[in-house]
Prior knowledge:
alpha/beta, D-Maltodextrin-Binding Protein, domain 2, 41% helix, globular
Amino acid sequence: xxxRLRSGVLAACSALLLAxxxxxxxxxxxxxxxxxxxxxxxxALGVDASYAPLYLAQERGLFAKAGLNVELMQVEGGPAAAxxxxxxxxxxxxxxxxxxxxxxxxHDQLRALGVxxxxxxxxxxxxxxxxxxxxxxxxxxxxQGIGLYATHSYxxxxxxDPGSIKIVKSSPPEIPGMLERGSVDAxxxxxxxxxxxxxxxxxxxxxxxxxxxxxxxxxxxGRTWLERNHVLAGKIFQVVAAANAMVTKxxxxxxxxxxxQAKLPADQTERVLPEIRFEARGFTAADRASARRIVDFLxxxxxxxxxxxxxxxxxxxxxxxxxGTASPAAVPGA
Length: 334
């Protein structure tokens, strides 16, 4: 079963959990209906091609074959997945670094376990037809997190003061229409929204790697739940690692799973999957340096007041201890 939640209802969900006596770390002990028994783990994620390993793992029954009872909880993307963990609605989530870090500054419950993908090509710069140079831009649309960070980095790279540009915050489905109507001159987004802008009054003018930006997608968990479930979380990460290898080997199958699980166009998904490095690993010094740059940006923009303790929230060595001991081939069905 897939549950769709928008971030606006997460607070209500949290209140409901508290009212019924459920704490942030709880799971349901149940039969998942697919042969898997044990504690139910809800894993929150967004809806785009970058989540293909999770869609494929669910479609192929990899979690159940590993004896895990995992339910994918689809949310609108951005910070909403991590918000679900912070509120107790989910136990784990998949989030980009720039979406997770501001929430980590506000919620002590969030812990990042490791990286399961990264890219400097998946997010693309889309300019409105008639806009051929960055200097012509007067307005840009942006999503939270990686979108705003990339937008500022793009403008600074071209020696444009971001303060001189009107930056309109919106959601991915709305932004291509804003470009087509002429409400904005440019935006930076992932697929399928970059392609929709390209087909509707705009053109793709590059990727975030062109101006030195990339992202890493992390698996997060709630601290209280994790303290009792390190081994369980490690097994879930092993399944994701196995699914990563399957996506790289057979992007067509991954695209078909994304179509079935999230109603994403299979042809578009298959086309963009090679733009993403699907590899699971623990945190490195480079990851911490990148996280520090993002945090510095968030503080500069007054989006957070203080930095999260990166030594605590990015769990050094956790992946190697709990998830890195088994090869993808050790997961049944991989």
